[in-house]
Write a structure and sequence with these properties.
With 143 residues, the chain is an alpha+beta fold. It has a single domain, classed as Haem-degrading domain (Beta-Lactamase). It is built from four helices and four strands; from the N terminus they run H-E-E-H-H-E-E-H. Strands 2-1-4-3 form a four-stranded antiparallel beta sheet. The two termini are 28 Å apart. It holds the Pfam family HbpS-like. Keywords: Signal. InterPro entries: GlcG_carb_metab_protein, PduO/GlcC-like, PduO/GlcC-like_sf.
Length: 143
């Protein structure tokens, strides 16, 4: 086989993820920086909520990119040689909690990264966003 089917994250999917993350962050009372990337680590959506830490802009984006690249949640990735090499050469990866991959039918379609709260708060916001995204997918609302 010379080609394979691909499932791609759309701007509507990125917008849904951002909205769900903002809703979760507001409910917690914790302003966040939220980044959504596609499977190629291209930024699809970003929001810096009022009151969030400006330095979290970069960490949220790196969390999203790391999750999309590795297909694993950030914060629990074992420090294997490949991850360390990628971090050293690209400077675009991180292993802080708050990054989750977006996986549909076994295909990594992107990642979300959240930063500005505690590590646990960042992860909770990311989890809420991914749960809303997967619920919409399960409901058959793919567009």
């Amino acid at each position: 086989m010379l080609t394979r089917p691909a499932i791609k994250l759309t701007h509507r999917g990125a917008t849904l993820l951002l909205a769900a993350a903002v809703e979760a962050a507001e409910a917690m009372g914790v302003p966040q920086c939220i980044a959504v990337v596609d499977d190629g680590c291209n930024l699809m959506g970003f929001i810096r909520m009022d009151g969030s830490r400006v330095l979290s802009v970069e960490s949220a984006t790196r969390k999203a990119m790391t999750a999309a690249t590795t297909g694993r949640p950030t914060g629990g990735i074992s420090p294997d040689k490949a991850l360390l090499l990628a971090e050293a050469t690209s400077g675009k990866m991180t292993n802080l909690l708050g990054g989750l991959p977006l996986i549909i039918d076994g295909h990594i379609v992107g990642g979300i990264g959240v930063g500005s709260g505690t590590s646990e708060q960042d992860l909770q916001v990311a989890q809420a966003a991914v749960a809303a995204f997967l619920k919409r997918m399960d409901e058959g609302q793919h567009s």
